[in-house]
Amino acid sequence: MVDPRPGRIAALLAALDRANLDALLLTGLANIRYLTGFSGSSAIALVMPRQVVLISDSRYAVQAEEEAGAAAVVDIQPRSLWAGLWHHLGALPGVHTVGFEASHITHRDFQRLMESGARWQWRPTTDMVEELRERKDAGEVEAIRRAGEVATRALDRLLRGLRPGLTEFEVAGLLEHALRDEGSEGFPFPTIVASGPRSALPHAMASGRVVEEGELLLLDFGAELEGYCSDITRTVVLGRADSRQREVHEVVREAQARGVQGVSAGMTGEDADALARDYIQRRGFGEYFQHSLGHGIGLEVHEAPRLARRVETPLPQGAVVTIEPGIYLPGWGGVRIEDDVHLGSAGPELLTHFPRELIEVA
Amino acid sequence: MVDPRPGRIAALLAALDRANLDALLLTGLANIRYLTGFSGSSAIALVMPRQVVLISDSRYAVQAEEEAGAAAVVDIQPRSLWAGLWHHLGALPGVHTVGFEASHITHRDFQRLMESGARWQWRPTTDMVEELRERKDAGEVEAIRRAGEVATRALDRLLRGLRPGLTEFEVAGLLEHALRDEGSEGFPFPTIVASGPRSALPHAMASGRVVEEGELLLLDFGAELEGYCSDITRTVVLGRADSRQREVHEVVREAQARGVQGVSAGMTGEDADALARDYIQRRGFGEYFQHSLGHGIGLEVHEAPRLARRVETPLPQGAVVTIEPGIYLPGWGGVRIEDDVHLGSAGPELLTHFPRELIEVA
């Protein structure tokens, strides 16, 4: 496959030029990975017209060179990444105005720029790399698709082993084990396993609660491949569902199908959100769907764009987004169904394939 | 057990008083959890002499009240956490000077304070809550000890199932599954499974590499209980170790034993680091131990204090720290051994119990 990094760096340099910046300091790790390939947990990078510099620490000496050596000059700093920054910036006489990532730098590190970097003019920027990342190329879509396949195969395997009497922790263990066996590089976010009334908590981590016969079980999890995330949710019933469980699940299923089928590039985040929300409201559950419909997904599990009320920017072509309506009835339980959709030039394409009808686990 | 939160809040208020602050805005999630009990992923908090306010979003409406309701006024903001901040600050006429956490706020959010919060004087603070968190109380030490027991039981179970031919992903799956079955609430950091030459990368994530007979296998992982982390590393050999593997492992084992036995409250971070480093240097491997000896552990897997060169502050009594020397020979492999130690009033106490002699997995 063609190395996508030169094209990404060129697109960023064009944006720097339009913003009258001589260089951009990157402190967001996902942005650094997107441009250089480096996947470690400690780095800053400097993008300049003739050079990209990646600065990391000694734990990553070998890995940084392997992953990023073709795209960047790698500098390993034993004491402080910032020492490397001053060194490289100081060596370039033409660099005066330097952008920094206002959403990815702490106030404390910003103060370092003001104090030790007083020679340069520092300009806050937002989303310069994120805007490039919104539009996925074919390789990125393929990585997310494969991460989706890993997730759905793991879910299939979990459901074959699921039975009442397990704790939520044990269910998470079975699911995460299956994800690893299928090749997941890790867990993009803490696995949500929420049973019975806990399924009414939209963000419940797994707990020691025992899952009982007849209860709802909400599973929200993802896989990671080549750094790219998938994110999927299904809500099942252990044993036979009652009529209330069927009704709520059916409303969410229909709302989610409307979202998946109706979403497309060019529509605003608010209009996308309304595809599912309007239906849930008409069915009388509007007040029980309080979160937004979805979010972009890629190197991070939550990234631009947002599918939510009051988001008036259009969804960009090429984005991959989640569609995840839910209904949460306090004290009773909740249902959420989530898939990942690519907003391609030929229309929306579902990347996660798993039945959305209510599953009653025998 | 006595609720520790009122005492923690009182200690923080005393520190605010000494710093001439009327209030402190908390944006660090671990600090918020320490003071209020809230464990979710989206919150800010405001600590004032007569009131603690926790502001979260609608996904956490039920959970925030359950976890933090006894320690704080909970305010759920559907649109922006910051709207809640202006509301609560504005309702208190005596509040003029407000601290914020310079290491836990982005430059972008700092700009919100400057723009929308121009009525108040904002003062950067660092480590006000972290300094309280360094000294663990009995309940915290007990949670870390139990998280250590979960980790060592999981490791024991993994070693019984380990065999050549598994991928690193599959090994991670077995280990993480065992951690869940033992009750771990999650994974404090991405599991490190590094085999053969990959064990020379101190921070290698698990990969698709197949683990072969006769190879080193480095396992670095942790468990989480009541939000508290353990962190342990063992390096084993699949099958019979050769003489080089034995030699390197023995140097690391002896260095780690010296660290565990010699570390104590009152000694500087640099002197603690030297306990193991000096021995490794004398044995001729100094240049292959490039990271620091250890770090504090608690609600976060990396927190204060640091056990490293050039750290001249003394280790506080009550801290829990890791002791984790390693030797990494590029192209050959690496060995690291790590345990968690409580620096109690009666001397250092090991919290993770698992053999440190070289294990040859049959």
Keywords for this entry:
Creatine Amidinohydrolase, Chain A, domain 1, 19 strands, Creatine Amidinohydrolase, four-stranded mixed beta sheet, alpha+beta, six-stranded mixed beta sheet, homodimer, 2 domains, 362 residues
Topology readout:
The structure is a homodimer of 362-residue chains.
Chain A: H1 5-18, E1 23-26, H2 29-36, E2 43-48, E3 51-56, H3 61-68, E4 73-76, H4 81-90, E5 97-101, H5 107-116, E6 121-125, H6 128-134, H7 138-161, H8 168-181, E7 192-195, E8 216-221, E9 224-225, E10 228-229, E11 232-238, H9 243-262, H10 269-282, E12 294-296, E13 303-307, E14 320-323, E15 326-329, E16 333-336, E17 339-344, E18 347-350, E19 360-361
Parallel strand pairs in A: 1-5, 3-4, 5-6, 11-19
Antiparallel strand pairs in A: 1-2, 2-3, 7-8, 8-11, 9-10, 12-13, 14-17, 15-16, 17-18
Helix pairs in contact in A: 7-8, 9-10
